[in-house]
Queue: 3 jobs
Job 1
Amino acid sequence: MSDPLITTVAADSVAGDKGLKKGAIGLVGSVVVATASTAPAYSLAASLGFIVASGGGLLAGLKSPAIILVAFIPMYFIAQAYKELNEADPDCGTTFTWASRAFGSVTGWMGGWGIIIADIIVMANLAYIAGQYTFVFVGGFGLPEVAALSDDIWASTLVGVLWIVVMTSICYRGIEISARLQYGLLGFEMVLLLAFAVIAIVKVATGHGESYSVGFDLSWLNPFGMSFADAFAPAVLTAIFIYWGWDSAVAVNEETKDPGRTPGRAAVTSTLLLLGTYLLVTIATVSFAGVGTKGIGLGNPDNASDVFSTMAPEVFGGGGIGVVLQILFAATILTSASASTQTTILPTARTSLSMAAHKALPSHFARIHPRYLTPTWSTIGMGIVSIVFFLAFTLISPDLLEALIESLGLMIAFYYGLTGIACVWFYRNTLFRSVRNFVFRGLMPFLGFGFLAVVFVYGLISYSAVDWLQSADGENVTIFGVGAVGVVGVVGLLAGFVLMFVWWSRNPEFFRGKVIPRGAFLEGVTVDDANRVAD
């Protein structure tokens, strides 16, 4: 039979297979890992300006909170798909494993590649931001010459490399150490974001805001009334990816207590936590700064790349406490980027570990440290590849590196969308047995897939426009006359096919469909039973 039927896997039968440390983190630790991976402070600082306006013209404007709500919907639907698939097969390969079971080895391998290439690219961005804000933070203590180094590309790059080395070593030392560090980093970040939002809202409500501050109105939560092509779609395209990263909780499933349930619950919980955080901070930011094009207004293109740095002095004030809060708030961008650097290494190492364990990559990547019970080659390899990638593209062309970073949306939409449709297909035999099955295993994942498919196509068209990305000199960045972001996004995904066929030619066993048999869900039949049927 080519289509065996498989069911929920007993947690212990999978969690111990690869040698990872079982039961190392619980629900709270998983939620922390998932939330930290999204880098909330940095994501908001770098994205809100582009959600509100673009090129000096308004996009979402006062309706930016509505865009945050809309962008949450597909992320929540895909999180439900992760939850349902993880219950059936709690494997740290996530999309790689599940897509292989649903659609076969080639699709599964490309799903794994989507995770790996997206994480390698974002590491360059996160490391650079961590390096840059290291100088900003230190310079805040009366050292302007140090702060000025944040504008030096190579100074920030070299410090960013050091951040990658530090975070890779922490990941190498164990999942528990990594989780404990995240408690502190994320806790600090969330407390400062909450303080910023509350102070801003209170100032506006009591009449102590700016002259252009705007009181909150419920209409801000209504997404209707915007032009789809000129405002809604571009704003959602930016907003949807500030939620990316919560799937890290599922990638460490084999090291989690109750691996069949806890990771999925953590993924869903983290998306809800992010929604609450993003909505509160967005409402506070829009209300205090307004959407004008002057001063700290969110429509001012000079503020777009970091709306918080221009707002913080006005929100916190210039007194002694205010200055301290400004310095601490600036530090949230540093802790946000550095924390996300660490939580990006974790899922990528486990994806490559799972691929190697299933013979889809060289066996070296499946090696586990005998003491720390963490992936060795996969963790160190992720760090090395990220550093080489970061340095190489910074050396070749900062504009090309920026194009790669902006193309992340295509990779994310690809593997998140693939997970959504894999859930529908995997559970196809049981979708109509209950309303719950239909909604959580069918409708939500399918709508999430459909939304992300539209995002992928719209994003590809937008990224391919010749004027989508411009250099510091104001020149269009293109490759063969096509927008560089679209080109490198497609090339990044297609590179996976090349690597896959190289490995296929050397070791075809995985691609014969025997290692991970293709199948569908049916109660009463185990994965082991399905494997025997496939054999």
Job 2
Amino acid sequence: MAECRIEDFALIGDCETAALVGRDGSIDWLCWPRFDSPACFSALLGTPDHGRWKIAPEDVSARMSRRYRPHTLILETRFETDAGAVTLVDFMPPRGTNSDVVRLVVGERGSVAMRMELVLRFGYGADIPWVSRAEDGAVRAIAGPDMVVLRSPVELRGEDMRTVAEFTVEAGQTIPFVLTHGLSHLPIPTAIDFEVALTETESFWTEWAGRYRPAALDGDVRMPKPWAEAVERSLITLKALTYAPTGGIVAAATTSLPEWIGGGRNWDYRYCWLRDSAMTLFALMNAGYMDEAEAWRDWLVRAVAGGSDRMQIMYGLAGERRLEEWEIDWLPGFAGSKPVRIGNGAHGQLQLDVYGEVMSLLHEARVGGLPESSQAWSMQKGMLKALETLWREPDEGIWEVRGASRHFTFSKIMAWTAFDRCIRSAEEFGLDECPIEHWKSIRDEIHRDVCARGFDLEVGAYVQAYGETALDASLLLLPRVGFLPPDDPRIRSTIEAIERDLVVDGLVRRYHTSEGADGLHGPEGAFLACSFWLADALISIGRVSDAEALFERLLALRSDVGLLAEEYDPKAGRQLGNTPQAFSHVALVNTAHRLAEAKAGAGVAAIRPLR
């Protein structure tokens, strides 16, 4: 069997969880009923014995092509054999009482012999369920609190602790398979009508995609059709990473996909980072989607609650605080990349940049017309009260280092941003009961501190941390936060220094991992978001043609269905890290908007939404 790559997987989801579907017709990852629930299909991080659901022609030489149905998250995989052709339609309907995965085998031409194999292994591949037949003939599998029910008109049978079926599809015929999750102590879920479900799912996504209104583009600015299609696919992907019941947003749909094949930089991204969520909402708001911003703001107020002085950098989907990290010893990892981690130990870190991300988002939400929330403003004031002293402390930074805390320059800049955006909100929207002059004093003090300690004259650039000479790609965001004007010579010299030092094979690395300052071992790929940030930075200093060339290069790195993981290995020509990654898709959306605006001669504002 050909080597499996991260870009081989497409996403389907219902805005509460998501599944990854391989090019071979196998669903190799699904956590039910939430993004962060234990997986019942874990072949992505192990073998087929750890759980998968495959539907494919018996002819292993079948030719494959796939696409998303336009403006939706409905995946269509076409298999062609000498005897005929079929299309496998995969989707998850917007959730009703239960969550469903629907797979339709549609005969297009001739006659195709097919095989279905369902391997349910709950608990990340560890737990074999008890399987029985329901009264209506459905196959029911139960393990602990979980129940999964498979319904199909084809004959299903048990074989070697699996459920299998062989069937033939003729042209014009549609054979449905519906897998439904429920709680094991409740009655078996009611069957759904697959045709109605398909219609409702297509309507949900096309209606949502049709609301795209690029507020980030001025006047009559239009972007090229390929860019617009890439932006739409990214926006749909970002929407799929939202958790509808609470408004939370996950950083990615997976855990432990490696940042280097065979390496140990493998993390669980199925939680709600405030930074990643804020970036996602910037992109959504700039595209005209304000409902998601309001839902997330309310989620944030509930998650932080009365602890604004002890705000975490991430929470669970419903605002859970304890996200203890542990390792699964029975899963070998993707392409043998161990360990497989569940939970994330970074939840207890201090990352000062998060304050700036959140305050900037909430300010831009007000600018965009989001109704004011007294609770949110009280929370912001409490956060700034804590930041008055915290900004002086070393932290783990935007990259969540697992080594010693340091005085990261970007962290200090974003602390400045936090005060700056709250001052702007207070002045522009008449928000009262705040010590605005005190905030201005702290903002100015942070600015002086960063200018004095964050810029190294010998390097000729802002550096990763005070007293050091290493560079950091996060500083490509300097033109975007308004800390200095884009035409300040320190901005240009920092961008050019990063371009010389951190660009490898045309793509940007976060920093030099070989120096060991992050407390981890082993290399990683080029960071895709940072490469988009370089394009943005080049726009800010007038190098629009260079930015466009880089943007086109990055678009070419997407999978065949337009998805991006976190990183890329330019030498091996493959994606790396968790997928699909909100960080990467947010950066794509924002760079497309900025580049279209710059090419139209609309100019680039000094202060715009972050990212």
Job 3
Amino acid sequence: MKRFVASASLAALVCGCLAAGAQAAAPTQVEGVETVAALFGAREAVHGATLSPNGMKIAMVQSIGTGGTAVAVAEYDKDPKLRTLVISSSAAEKIRHCSWPSDSELVCSVSVADKDLNSYTRLIALYLDGRPMKVVTAAESSRALGFTWYGGDVIDWTGAKPGEVLMLRQYVPEREIGTHLASSLEGLGVESVDVRSLRRTTVEKPVPDAMDYITDGRGSVRIRGLNPTTSGGYDTNVINYFYRTKDARSWDLLSKVTFNASGSTTGFQPVAVDPTLDAAYGFDRKDGFMALYREKLDGSKARELVFSQPGIEVDDLVRLGRGQRVVGVSYAGDYRKVEYFDSELASLRKALGKALPGGPSVDFIDSSEDESKLVTFVGSDVDPGRYYLYDKGSRHLEEVLPLRPGLAGRKLAEMKPVQFPAADGTMIPGYLTLPPGSDGKNLPAIVMPHGGPSSRDEWGFDWLVQFFAARGFAVLQPNFRGSAGFGEAWFEKNGFQSWRTAVGDVDDAGRWLLSSGVAAKGKLAIVGWSYGGYAALQSGVLDPGLYKAIVAIAPVTDLSALRQDHVTRTDYRLVDQQIGSGPHVTQGSPAQNAAAIQVPVLMFHGEWDLNVNVRQSQMMERRLRDAGKQVELVTFPGLAHSLDDSAARTKVLQQSDSFLRQAMGL
């Protein structure tokens, strides 16, 4: 196997960086925080890569400026230089992902947000021959009784002719007064659309409660998910999945999935259909942990266990190519692993991992229609990652683009799995990252709880962690009880209702850093985003003074207010169930207990945050000021929950570093 690098023109056109494979000069020992913050705060240069059916063209969504996005294409059968097809310079209008209906056009999803916290999506078609782009999402009638918030997604190819896709469509009923032409169709359906002419045909009539359709990769819809709503229009915590046998039109019940308040689910949740086996792949619990099952769709509903891993949640299906062929399954213990059902891919992945420096993780992202060419993503904890194009026939491996060219040649910090004891003796898993070259002792240290709460941290590159490690901090990321990935019992009630356990585990992470000698006395802080920000603030209530400073980004601060923020949303009942009722609602709200916090607090929040309203941070700031505490809130107009803007992220990093150093006396 021979490794090739991309041409200088391909890499330089995107980011003005060094030619792929070249090594940048090592950073000097004396670097200002401004420089380091800008390096790590920069957004990824590219967001995903997808291959045309013939394998000769690759498209990617790029970062443009501090907050914009663009779609660029390299045509290897013509000119490998990247050609930009469309640019969105606004952070409020982002291109999310693209796919190839044929070798000559793309369909891309665009999300749009506004200051009133409205958000919607649209599909657009881009043509490589230079024709003007078109909006693929169906236009609303002037008689529409509502707004089309969801612009649909491509879910399959019809196979009838190039450029024809199956896509989801949100149907909105129309006003009937004064016309006999009004449509009463409502809900989510499926239609066939020719992206060249925009001719559209209904394939599955919409159903008001429909929320999912699953095809077989060959243009046939085989599974439909219905989420019943209440009389008030709120979603329930149940999805009923129905299937149809080959060549049938009627639907039969396949499974019922229940979303529990803890964040766990019960019931068989289908995610893919194998047309050859005439079966659905999906996840269900086995001995309290998620496992992969397969159920026949021939009417027998015969079920078999495909893969499980004792004590670990099996949580992701690996699919490849135009037909989204199921090729493996993925799960995360200390490290994420993939078990390939396809022996050729398993061997190739192993060979590539050995051939590439550092023994990185190798994932197959996309392929040509005949799977002779593969897009792979390669990365690790000390490598932000890069995309490669591999040709099976020639065994040619070519680097396409790195995700973070500004970090090329820079020594990054290794992320090590660790365990530490909670107060009740339970061993809590996590990841410890030490500054490069450090002996791991007597360091300024940060505990960084993840968001969610029913999420988890995994091994791999993390720009926030790596920044603080580069600035000399040790960083511990605890997967506290309430995290996903560790079985049903680990969820407890969830990170809000069982906040004392979850935040207690987070605080025990800090105590372990001190007792083990990693953290220097008086040099311990906590930094968190979203639920992690909530945990950071609540740690100051549960254990005042344990941490010398608190940084909270987009935090939840008041559980009652969080519930109220969802009253006008369809997910209100689910949020209400998650928060629950009882003394924990007040006791577990940092804003209701601000007087207990004894250390300085710094918060950041996007003003267009749809996940956690900026009012949560504004309330916390007022309560802390009223209690005579030291607090600062920095808000970002026009930005959402992830602060997907290089300038904003750089400011977060730079200001947090200065704040922590001052609080710790560094």
